[in-house]
Structures are given as structure tokens and as C-alpha cells.
Specification:
Elements: E1 15-17, E2 24-26, H1 27-37, E3 53-54, H2 71-134, H3 138-141, H4 148-154, H5 169-190, H6 200-204, E4 207-212, E5 223-228, E6 235-240, E7 244-249, E8 254-260, E9 268-271, E10 277-281, E11 287-291, E12 296-301, E13 308-313, E14 319-324, E15 328-333, E16 339-344, E17 351-356, E18 362-367, E19 372-376, E20 381-386, E21 393-398, E22 404-409, E23 413-418, E24 423-429, E25 436-441, E26 447-452, E27 455-459, E28 464-469, E29 476-481, E30 488-492, E31 497-501
Antiparallel strand pairs: 1-2, 1-3, 4-31, 5-6, 6-7, 7-8, 9-10, 10-11, 11-12, 13-14, 14-15, 15-16, 17-18, 18-19, 19-20, 21-22, 22-23, 23-24, 25-26, 26-27, 27-28, 29-30, 30-31
């Protein structure tokens, strides 16, 4: 059925019907008529656009004009379309070339910006390290008028033997008084085991309950040292091969402080037992004392001319023992920065370890030629030697009961020494090629931890093995007990800090 517009008498493209007259119209024509007159074009009655009814019909294919159907016309149409396609292609190629040039320029700017940012970051880091090294600290400035030795330290000059102040009678008396108190406390503690000390069965049931990977840089492998705050055992101090020491809170799993200033890896760390202060040592020959809350170096000690290999805080909390490959051990005041004494080990051998006895009047050092030497601090003299190891001494640790000394070297064994009889009474022979990197007694002297190829816990007196913890994927470098051995923390060359306890 064909429809014809009542106005134009042609086929409508959009036909509509008027309900007033029933006639068919082209929508655009009838709408114009209604807008002008408001009436139906056929009978003149009132009509609105809204009253029009659309008629759905198949689309009408209008025949092409006769002039288009000729061969020359078809060829011309094809030529015009070809020309349009070529022009469009040329335009697209121009736009593509422009976009490539703009992208290349942007990428060049981005690369330049990254290089500038990297260079500025290095400069800022170097400036901060220099500031931490050179900045005189308020604690030193507020003390008495600086002595030449303090001024030398603040200015970054290595202390020489001529800078030694000497251990005065007042210092000796202070050490003696502290030792007397500690001896009495130790004897009192020795009569009973702490009530909440973890039991042997619980130690045997220990498992890894936390493993932390992000404390140190992932680009440099290894966490090399560990210590725990005695008063708040949730705070753990680690030293890494990335030249940084980190203070970590295990309870909220947050890094409290990142201490940067050493120019080489941090190999020894000590957490002050009562204050939020830490001490770190490095092969860069320096010892740094840090304020954890400000992440700033409060004291820079340069008592050695070679790598610092041992670090131990005196029970008074005021003095620091250090050993070095320069063959000397040093005794320094961390409150004033004075080097009180510096003594060369006998035999001209580099020192590899150092540790205070719990009373603080004697201490032990290990040498590169496998010797254990016991020193009297007041007399600054070597009072006993413990031969028997082979290879450089890697770790020494005094038991809190004051009677035992545990030592390790590169001979795959741990030797126990009786300080009263001055002899080796027990040797814990480990597997061949087992490397011992650290030793630690718990505060009650009940357990001994060994860190190396794995982490092992021994029961003292019986010296029986209670637990082997081998979750690290590389060499374990440090181990410490939490309060009353309720947990154990260890570090490793696999960049992790692992915590063990009863689940």
C-alpha cells in the first residue's frame, strides 16, 4: 500500500495521519501548517501537533537520478570517493607523525625528570648524613664546657691514644658500687626461677608467629644484628647491610625509627635497657649513639682505626665497651663522649668480639686467632685466657647467673666455660660446616640460643637441645629472648625478622 501526502502529493518519508480528517501528510509539512494556522489542511478543523499519529511503513528507496546511472557518472563518483579516502589517509598520517613527536618529547622530559629526582635524592641523603655526622648535639653542649676529646668527636676527628682521659677513681667507684648491687640481685634471683618464665615444654612447642620483610632495603641482602629493649620488649632494634639501623615495634608492627648515618653496613647494635637510646657500630670505624624519638645521632665515637667488631653496654648504662680489628678494645663514656681507656690486645691480634660480664667489672674479648681473653676493667689487664677454638671467634655471651661463658668460632661448635674454675666444662658439637653467628642467654640464665645455619634453643645445666627453628631461608645472624623467654626474635641474611612463640 502506497501513501501519498495530501499536501505535496508525494510519497512521505515520515508519514502521519490526522485524526480530524483521516488524511495522510508528510510530518514536516503538516507541522509547519499547524504551527501557522492551528487547523487541519483538509477540513479546516482545529488540530495540534500532539494529535498527529505516526504511521510505520517500510523505508522508501528513492530511485537515483538518471544522470547518475551512466558509466561516466559512476566512474566520477568512484574517483571522488577514492580522492576523499586518500586525503583522509594523508591527514591521519600527518596526525600520527605529530603524535609520535609529541610522545617522544614527553618521554624525554620524563626521563630527564627522573634523573634529576634521583640525583637530588642522593644529594639530600648525603646532606642528611653529613648533618648527622657534624651536628653538635644538645646533650653534649648542655654538659660542662667541652673537653678537647669531646670537641674532637663532634668535629669528626678520630680519637687517638693521646685523647684517652683515663678511668678515674670516681668512675671506678661507680663501677664497683654497681657491681655490688648487681651481685646481690643475681644471688637473690638465683635462688628461684621467675614465676612466669616460659617452660621447657612451651619452648619445644615454639613456632613462627610473625615474619617481617620490609625493615631494611630489599636491594642489599641481609639483617646483620639484633637487640631488644629490656624495659619494653616490644621494641626490637636491627642493623642491616643497607647501612641503616631500624627500631621496630612488634606489637603494632610499625617501624618506629630508621637511623641512617653510617657509611658502611651496621654490624653491631645495642638497645639501652632503660632509655630510648640505641648504639650502633660499623666497619666504617665509627660508633653512633642515637636518640630514637628524633632519629638523630647524639654522639659519634671514633675510638678505632678499623672495623668495629664488638659492642657492649655497661650495666650502669653510662659506658660502652667496643672492640675492633685494629687490635684494641675501648671503654667510652656515652654521656660525655670521652674515651676513658683504649688497650691493645695481647699477641697483636685483631679483636672480633666483646661482651661485658653481668656485674660489669670483667669482660671478654675474642680474637682472630681463636683466643678468648678475660679482662679486669679496673686494672685494664688480661686476667685469663680460654684456648680451644679454631678459627676467628664469632660470638661470646655471659650467662646472667655470672658463672658461665658461651663462645663460638668458625669450628662448628659452642664451648661453655666455668668462670670460677676457668675451664671448658661442655662443648656443644654441631654439624660440619655449621656457622655460629650469635649466642644469647635469656635473662634468667635458663636457656641458651644459638643463631647460625638455623636457630637452636638449649636448656642450661643439662645442655640439652630443646628446639630447632629453621624457618629462615639463609644464615641466621642474630637471636634474642623476649621477657622471660615468652618469645624469641631472630634475624637473617634473607632480610627477615622472625618472631617465635607459642601459638
Amino acid at each position: 500500500m502506497s501513501l501519498v501526502c495530501a499536501i505535496s502529493n508525494e510519497l512521505p518519508e515520515h508519514p502521519v495521519i490526522s485524526p480530524v480528517s483521516g488524511a495522510v501528510f508528510e510530518r514536516r509539512l503538516v507541522e509547519k501548517y499547524i504551527v501557522e494556522t492551528g487547523q487541519d489542511p483538509v477540513n479546516g478543523q482545529e488540530l495540534t501537533i500532539e494529535q498527529l499519529i505516526d504511521i510505520k511503513t517500510a523505508p522508501v528507496n528513492r530511485p537515483k537520478a538518471p544522470s547518475v546511472t551512466s558509466i561516466p557518472a559512476v566512474l566520477k563518483i568512484l574517483q571522488d570517493e577514492w580522492d576523499a579516502v586518500m586525503l583522509h589517509s594523508f591527514t591521519l598520517r600527518q596526525q600520527l607523525q605529530t603524535a609520535r613527536q609529541e610522545l617522544s618529547h614527553v618521554l624525554y622530559q620524563f626521563d630527564s625528570a627522573c634523573r634529576v629526582i634521583g640525583r637530588l635524592t642522593k644529594e639530600v641523603t648525603a646532606a642528611r648524613e653529613a648533618l648527622a655526622t657534624l651536628k653538635p648535639q644538645a646533650g653534649i653542649a648542655q654538659a660542662a664546657t667541652p673537653q678537647p676529646a669531646i670537641a674532637a668527636e663532634a668535629g669528626g676527628v678520630a680519637l687517638q691514644p693521646s685523647d684517652v682521659c683515663g678511668i678515674t677513681d670516681d668512675v671506678i667507684q661507680k663501677l664497683q658500687d654497681k657491681a655490688t648491687v648487681l651481685t646481690q640481685e643475681r644471688k637473690r634471683r638465683g635462688r628461684s626461677v621467675p614465676e612466669d618464665l616460659i617452660t621447657q615444654d612451651n619452648i619445644r612447642a615454639f613456632q613462627t608467629f610473625a615474619s617481617h620483610h620490609g625493615l631494611h632495603s630489599a636491594s642489599v641482602p641481609g639483617i646483620l644484628a639484633i637487640d631488644i629493649h629490656a624495659a619494653d620488649t616490644s621494641k626490637i632494634l636491627t642493623g642491616g647491610a643497607d647501612k641503616t639501623a631500624t627500631v621496630f615495634n612488634k606489637d603494632n608492627e610499625q617501624v618506629i625509627a630508621s637511623l641512617k648515618g653510617h657509611t658502611k653496613k651496621v654490624t653491631k647494635v645495642v638497645y639501652h635497657p632503660e632509655e630510648d637510646v640505641v648504639m650502633t657500630a660499623s666497619p666504617d670505624t665509627t660508633i653512633r649513639v642515637w636518640n630514637v624519638s628524633t632519629c638523630q645521632t647524639t654522639l659519634l665515637l671514633k675510638a678505632h682505626d678499623a672495623s668495629v667488631t664488638g659492642l657492649s653496654l655497661h650495666p650502669t648504662g653510662d659506658y660502652l665497651l667496643s672492640s675492633s680489628l685494629d687490635q684494641y678494645w675501648a671503654f667510652s663514656d656515652i654521656r660525655t663522649g670521652r674515651l676513658l681507656t683504649k688497650v691493645g690486645g695481647q699477641g697483636n691480634q685483631p679483636l672480633t668480639a666483646a661482651q661485658f660480664h653481668p656485674d660489669g667489672l670483667i669482660f671478654g674479648t675474642g680474637t682472630e686467632d681463636s683466643q678468648i681473653k678475660i679482662w679486669d676493667l679496673k686494672e685494664q689487664s688480661n686476667v685469663a685466657n680460654f684456648p680451644g677454638h679454631s678459627g676467628p671467634i664469632s660470638a661470646i655471651s655471659f650467662s646472667e647467673n655470672g658463672y658461665y661463658l658461651a663462645t663460638a668460632a668458625e669450628d662448628s661448635c659452642v664451648k661453655l666455660w666455668d668462670l670460677r674454675k676457668l675451664k671448658n666444662f661442655k662443648t656443644l658439637q654441631l654439624e660440619d660446616n655449621y656457622e655460629v653467628k650469635d649466642l644469647c642467654f635469656d635473662q634468667s640464665g635458663t636457656y641458651l640460643a644459638v643463631a647460625g645455619s638455623d636457630v637452636r634453643i638449649y636448656l642450661c645445666k643439662l645442655w640439652s637441645e630443646l628446639k630447632v627453628l629453621n624457618d629462615h631461608t639463609a644464615l641466621a645472624t642474630g637471636v634474642r629472648f623476649g621477657k622471660n623467654a615468652h618469645y624469641i626474635a631472630s634475624t637473617s641474611m634473607d632480610r627477615t625478622l622472625k618472631l617465635y612463640g607459642s601459638l
